[in-house]
Amino acid sequence: xFSYLLTQxxxxxxxxxxxxxxxxxxxxxxxxxxxNVDFLLGKNGKEWxxxxxxxxxxxxxxxxxxxxxxxxALKEAELEIEGIRRQEEAELARKLEExxxxxxxxxxxxxxxxxxxxxxxxxxxxxLILNYNASSWFHLLTSVL
Length: 145
Fold this sequence. Notes:
With 145 residues, this protein is mainly α. 71% of the residues lie in helices and 0% in strands. It is rod-shaped and about 150 Å long.
């Protein structure tokens, strides 16, 4: 009996509070970590409500589901395409690096061949100089003696 009276008293106080603050409700600040719902207000100042299917431009639930399925499929396709693009970019970068290394190797090989040819020409030139000098020395020595 006491709990019944207590409940009636709580209901009475709540109703008084509602009458008193009906027009100028003080919005409570949500505590951190708690979810909060705010309702849009209509022209009359009360919560705006929309009932699906009442308007002639409203879509049926089947149409809405179909659109959602199409949007999901589109997102999945975009993600798949992005993954394929990344794989192809990685493959192209790898091939480009291999080609660069191959060309650097060829360049190094050509430089080595060029060094060898220059050294060979220098040696031949030196040999000619030495041969010429040797024969000149030989003629000089034989003519003097």
